[in-house]
Write a structure and sequence with these properties.
By secondary structure, this protein is α/β, with parallel strands linked by helices. It contains 19 helices and 15 strands. A six-stranded antiparallel β-sheet has the order 2-1-4-5-6-7, covered by helices on one side. Helix 6 packs antiparallel against helix 13, helix 12 packs parallel to helix 13 and helix 15 runs parallel beside helix 16.
Length: 553
């Protein structure tokens, strides 16, 4: 239940601090006094949007704070959402500055708005025009029905949703494989041509670098031999060749090496140079012998490089990239057969999932139809108690042509409000007053399964009067025996059934409009109900009538 409500600087409310009891609570007052602003404050606590224009003129912020008492079951639900209730209480606070920036806190822990909505959805249900529109919208009817499923039905629905997701995933995979298969088939001849073109060249990784090296030697063979021969002559064959010069120099040092360590060291160094140069000359001679101007081989190398470069221009800058591309093309061609097998396998799995889906969907549909019968009977009884005894309410089922995550059922609430009248969709038949009563009847039924401790009705008496209002008042009082009920009302009949009544009035103080809220005692309630009955023309008879209404409590 909502124990305390504090609102500061919301619209024309400067500050209100209210304490609520169990049972039926009513908010009354003249039109425009600010009753809906109180509801706006509660709306902020359940996560509704806030804006800068909600902040009272001249103030820097608005504040809404509520203290909610919870029972053990609600405490367990909140714990699952990460909220620990201290002393069986939850304190919710919204703070919005004049720029429209807001913060939300639950038990002094800041929470995002999505979490606040989820948390408060377990504690408060506000029934107003938005709820009426929700009731008239066919797309919400299955969701409303499913709140009655019970443990078995909820379990089956969850399993069904999992199987549907499995089926959808398999269907997407089949489509992807079929798409790839189709694309490969369309390019099969092209892929086969590419594979043949690459295989014909019989590439080896890294051979292009070796061929490039060989091409340089073959193309410049004459120049290379000329320079190698000239170098060999200078080093060995000329009259004054390098080897002879170093040899003679070595002999000179050899004759004086015994005269000092430093002479011996230089001799050894020169000997190393001599033998290294001798090796170099031998190597140059071998290279010269190996080099040949082979035009036939040159043509073959050029032809091979041209073939490789043609492939590079199409399939990759390196041989490794060409070979990698070749593997991908080969895999695509091989996948044609594999894809056919995979499609068969996935199709079998999908069909099995579909079979399991329909078995569960039919079982869920049977449970829904049983629950629908119970709702129809209970709602019929509730409507009789709300002066709609001639109404006939049915939940109509149609089987969906396609599989959905929620099953095969499409449902719509149908009603006939008069004897002899055929059933029609709720939105086509019900007037505003009838929708209010149907919504109230549904809330009575749903409160038994929802475990929501606070129901707030925003002008549930709109469009009805007389005996009907009296029956609505009795029904609200009946709900109030197990659930805290709050009602914004203009009806004296409803106000008279309340266990607690607050009067909301608008005053002009220091040229500023302020809404004030006051809890009424017994005498004040008589005056307020009299005002609701007769306006400003309150006579003794009206006072007596008000007392009689209150005597029905």
């Amino acid at each position: 239940m909502l124990k305390e409500l504090k609102i500061e600087n919301l619209a024309i409310i400067e500050k209100v601090d209210l304490e609520f009891k169990n049972g039926l609570i009513v908010l009354t007052g003249e039109t425009g006094a600010g009753k809906s602003i109180i509801l706006s404050g509660i709306n902020l606590l359940i996560g509704e949007k806030a804006s800068a224009d909600m902040v009272r003129d001249g103030e820097d912020y608005l504040l809404a704070q509520g203290v909610f008492a919870v029972n053990e079951e609600q405490e367990a639900e909140l714990k699952e959402l990460g909220i620990d209730a201290e002393d069986n209480e939850v304190i919710v606070r919204r703070h919005i500055d004049k720029n429209g920036k807001g913060k939300a806190f639950v038990n002094n822990i800041r929470v995002p708005m999505s979490s606040l909505k989820e948390i408060m959805g377990t504690l408060v249900d506000i029934v107003g025009q938005h709820s009426h529109q929700m009731l008239l919208n066919k797309s919400n009817h299955l969701r409303l029905l499913d709140r009655f499923l019970g443990e078995e039905g909820v379990s089956i629905k969850k399993q069904l949703e999992n199987i549907y997701n499995e089926y959808s995933s398999l269907e997407r995979r089949i489509q992807d494989v079929e798409k790839n298969k189709k694309e490969t088939l369309e390019k099969k001849e092209f892929y086969e041509f590419q594979l043949e073109e690459i295989d014909k060249v019989n590439l080896k990784d890294g051979e292009d670098e070796k061929l490039e090296e060989e091409y340089k030697k073959l193309f410049h063979a004459g120049k290379i031999k000329e320079k190698l021969s000239l170098t060999e002559n200078i080093l060995k064959d000329d009259e004054k060749n390098a080897l002879n010069i170093i040899y003679n120099s070595r002999k000179n040092l050899e004759t004086i090496s015994k005269y000092g360590k430093e002479f011996q060291e230089n001799l050894e160094r020169l000997e190393r140079v001599y033998y290294d140069l001798q090796d170099c000359v031998d190597s140059i001679r071998d290279l010269n012998d190996d080099i040949e101007a082979d035009d036939i081989r040159l043509e073959k190398v050029i032809s091979r490089l041209d073939a490789i470069n043609r492939l590079k221009s199409k399939y990759g800058d390196e041989i490794s990239e060409i070979l990698e591309y070749r593997e991908k093309v080969d895999e695509k061609l091989q996948l044609l057969d594999e894809n056919s097998f995979q499609v068969k396998k996935l199709t079998k799995e999908r069909d099995e999932a579909k079979e399991r889906y329909y078995i569960l969907a039919k079982k869920l549909s049977e449970i829904r139809k049983l629950k629908a019968n119970i709702i129809e009977d209970n709602l019929q009884d509730e409507l009789k108690g709300l002066n709609m005894g001639d109404a006939n309410f049915k939940i109509e089922f149609e089987e969906s042509e396609t599989m959905t995550a929620s099953g095969i059922d499409q449902v719509e609430f149908m009603i006939s409000t008069n004897i002899g009248q055929g059933l029609k969709p709720l939105w086509k038949v019900a007037s505003g007053g009838e929708v209010s009563r149907i919504m109230l009847a549904i809330k009575v039924i749903f409160s038994k399964v929802d475990n929501i401790p606070i129901l707030i009705f925003d002008e549930i008496d709109t469009g009805v009067g007389g005996e009907t209002v009296r029956k609505i008042a009795n029904k609200l009082m009946e709900i109030g025996e197990t659930t805290q009920v709050m009602s914004i009302t203009h009806s004296p009949a409803i106000a008279a059934k309340a266990t607690q009544q607050f009067f909301i009035e608008k005053k002009l103080i220091d040229n500023r409009t302020i809404t004030q809220v006051k809890e009424l005692n017994k005498e004040e309630r008589v005056r307020e109900i009299a005002r609701m009955l007769a306006g400003k023309n309150i006579s003794e008879a009206v006072i007596e009538h008000a007392k009689e209404l209150l005597g029905d409590e």
